[in-house]
Amino acid sequence: MQQASSPVVRDIVLVGGGHSHVMVLRMFAMRPMPGVRLTVICTDTDTPYSGMLPGYVAGHYSYDDVHIDIRKLAEFAGARYFKDEVTGIERNMQRVLCRNRPAVPYDVLSINVGATPAVHAVPGAPEYSIPVKPIRHFNERWLALLGRMQERTQPTTIAVVGAGAGGVELTLAIQHRLKHEMAKWGQPANAVQFHLFSADPVILPTHNARVRAAFMRTLQARDVKVHTCAKVTRLDKDCLHTENGDTFATHETFWVTQATGPAWLKETGLALDESNFIKVRETLQTETDPLIFAAGDCVAFTTRPLEKAGVFAVRMGKPLNHNLRRSLEQKPLIPYRPQQKWLALISTGDQHAIASRGALYAKGNWVWRWKDQIDRRFMRKFNELDPAMSSQTEAAQTPIPLKQEEQTQAISAIAMRCGGCGAKVGAGVLSSALANIEPLNRLEVLIGLHAPDDAAVVKVPPGKAMVHTVDFFRAFINDPYLFGRIAANHALGDVFAMGGEALSATAVATVPPGLESKVEDTVFQMMKGAVEVLNEAGCALVGGHTGEGQELALGFAVNGVVNESLEGVLTKGAMRPGDVLVLTKPIGTGTLFAAHAQLKAKGRWIDNALTYMQMSNRLAVPCLIEHGATACTDLTGFGLLGHLVEMTRPSGVDAELNLDALPILEGAAETAALGILSSLQPANVRLRRALQNQEAAVSHPNYPLIFDPQTAGGLLASVPAEHADAAIAALQALGYPAVKIGRILAQGEALAPIKLIL
């Protein structure tokens, strides 16, 4: 994981987290490229390793054993990670279209999105089958099936459509797993009947006769009914139909056949084959566009047909990495030479496997152990990451060729601008970045963002008083759009916590240097996210200042309004004895993002935390006021304990805080237990003197988290006891995971106001 010291001059964008792209990410970590920014766009943070999935289904591996954490790997590589679904490519504009965020520009693009079973080609298959891909959906449905099987009292028929290596492996893996699970459930092992359907005259048609014969013997020995020359033509809720007119009753059907590429590829204008796979040359460039590369199962290799096997996707990683770099350097590309024969180690579900390579064949438990060693060694390359493993400096190599106007910009960016006003981002860049951002128009804004004046003019409505707040911090994630959303949400929190209405905001941003187009896009992405949140809150962006610096940072000065009479205004100092303490969101962002920086946090933990950090407090406050809340604050840098102390002191009360009741973000307890804490934690820990029973509580697993600084945290409020249950129910109905975490007491004689309940 490294900070780029060179201004950004080129963007490589990776669409998908397949085997080829994880290889590219790792190689960039080991050898970064000066001036090149790497971005990966992926729907799922956890990307599966296909070679170990049957072992996962069979119960030999855990979920984490068989998945590569793309968010963590991207952080290791110094790459940006955008969790989103790609919907298309605008090749004329050189940008990738996404479902939930602004388009992402590229100089060179690579696609590695795999293949999916073509269920839509068979009537009923989309509704009534379980496709093996995408893996996330398969896993959800597989776990649901296990739940159904535990409750099922009648005999069950399971069909697997597709008898290649994937279908055969899956059949045997499912059978092995269910045999053992049903024994635990007290159900008879023969309560499940398996059927395997092949459209071909044989199973495993791409493997030699000895391999096919060995698997036929295994399937027969385990009472799997094999149907050859049985192309499935229709699927109903409880049966399937084959081309020869046969009908088979089935309760569960898995679909492992007729692979196809993603539907959105059809609109890209790229050359595709009849199965919607991208046609690529031996350089892995698409036939249509030299700026777009593709690899893995989503490609049709024009030199010769390749089986959809993970071994080819992995082997493509190295030449793809070289060619992405060489394309930017304008050097000749190198060819990918797929091997004529490859080793396939196919498991039988019971820690036994068969080896196939050309005419070669071997089998035994030792083959499975061999396969297990190979697979685990491969996964360690991507999941056992240490920041010390990656290069801390950008490798010396051939400078990227630049156009004449780009060379001038690059020289300026390298030198940076002088301090003061000279550090501003250029007016032209800023104007272009903000041109397509539409901040909310409010009648109170007399002179705003798009006026040429140096300051905004905002009218205060009659009978209202101003609420002023400001926040500013550097980016803790490498997604400028998402960072903009969270920064805006965080800044609005103080206004909402008081029961105020957000009126206007002024932005202050710092952006790393680069070519004007790169700086412009970073500003656009960040401010697009921020303005979306501000607009949703009814807050008008009225101006700001943007300068260059080494790190991306963003803050807002927010102006809100409350009733001049202070009616309906919530403050920190109005708690009353007998009130119940309510917290609207879980805590733990400080430790999680500290762990993320050290590559110690799982990507899905970060995904979950980011979801809560984007949850606005705007709707929670009126709900709390409606239920008689007496005091309120939003949790930020001082942590839960710091903010609670801020409330008890002016209120003249004490408080009980129940450590077991605290809502904790997924993974936060684990990272805190490892001693991975925010840099702000030591300052917050000084407040332990406010605890009456600190020594007794220090060993509690949630104890460190009461000091954990929060970003875009939830609301801490006191609510009369008689209204607390109704308030929490109403908050939960709005989507907030609100819980009771303590109560307010009359002030006692102890100097320390807070007692922890263990």
From TrEMBL:
Superkingdom of origin organism: Bacteria
Keyword Nucleotide-binding included in the entry's annotation: yes
Domain FAD/NAD(P)-binding: 11-302
Domain PurM-like N-terminal per the UniProt entry, residue ranges: 453-562
Cited InterPro entries: FAD/NAD-bd_sf, FAD/NAD-binding_dom, PurM-like_C_dom, PurM-like_C_sf, PurM-like_N, PurM-like_N_sf, Pyridine_nucleo_diS_OxRdtase_N, SPS/SelD
UniProt keyword list: ATP-binding, Kinase, Nucleotide-binding, Selenium, Transferase
Residue ranges of every copy of the PurM-like C-terminal domain listed in the record: 576-748
Pfam family, one: Pyr_redox_2
Transmembrane portions of the chain: none
PANTHER family from the UniProt entry: INACTIVE SELENIDE, WATER DIKINASE-LIKE PROTEIN-RELATED, SELENIDE, WATER DIKINASE
NCBIfam families in the cross-refs: Nterm_to_SelD (TIGR03169), selD (TIGR00476)
Name by which UniProt lists this protein: Selenide, water dikinase SelD
